[in-house]
Every structure is written in structure tokens, then in C-alpha cells.
Amino acid sequence: MKEIALETLNLNALSIIPNDWMLITAGTKENGFNTMTASWGHMGCIWNRLTAVAYIRPQRYTKEFVDREELYTLSFFPQEYKKQLSYLGSHSGRDEDKVAAVGFTTVFGEGFTTFKEASLTLVCRKLYRGTLTEEGFLDKDIFEKNYPGRDLHDMYIGEIVHAFVAEE
Length: 168
Description:
alpha+beta; 10 strands
């Protein structure tokens, strides 16, 4: 992995998250880590900082790690890894070493975890966490369709502090 300057990032957040998906990962080699696949999120600027927003349901094992750690990563992969991302999103790290099951190579940085196979990794420092509320939904159909179990996501706004790309 090679670190690049944030201002050189050239990506389309409107397509990379919903189409390519991403892994949300938190933890370290020393304290353990977990990862999950996500296809919801945002990137932009708030509070004069470049930020990425991740959403995690309360029952997800990865949430424990994101809550515990200062940093989390958003890792993006070439299309050829879609099957592995699907597996990582449908299996729990509570029950198995799912990273080993898909054959990904773990890369540990200072306070964060990512994967060698990722084409782009954004390291985010948590700035804000809040739980979505039923009252906040102006379009009640969205709420009913996405939250039949009333398990609303926690939203994490993270300042993007590092960006890494795969070495060619």
C-alpha cells in the first residue's frame, strides 16, 4: 500500500459505495479486529474536514470494534472481489475467522486494519456517532421498508486522515 495525499483522491462517491461496496473495519493486531461489508455511506465535507460516514446496525459484531477504537477504515476492492465481499457481509466474525475464509491478507497500520487486496483504503478518525430515529424519517415508507425490526443504524462521521492505494 502506498499513502497518497487526500487532495489527490479522485473518486465518485455516488457510485463507489453503492456499486462497488466497501469493508468497514476497526481494531488492531493487538486488540483484535472485525470487518463488515457495507453498501450505504457518504463522503464529503463537514466542520471544514473531509469526512466519510458509515452506518452500522446495533447487532453487527463490527460495531463493538468501531465503538471501542478511535479509527476505522473504509476499504474498496476491484470488482473481482465481489464474491468475497458478499461472504464477509453475510457471515459474522463472532462465529468464524471470515477474513481467512475469503483468503484476504490483513495489513495492520498504526491503530487500524485494512487488506492487501484493497485498491483504496480510507482511514477515518471518529468525530461523531448518533443513532437514526424513527421520528427523523420524513418518508415513512423508507423507515418501514428498511427497519421492520426497528434496529436503526448508528451513524459514524469520521474525518478522513489517511488514504492508501494499492501499489502497482
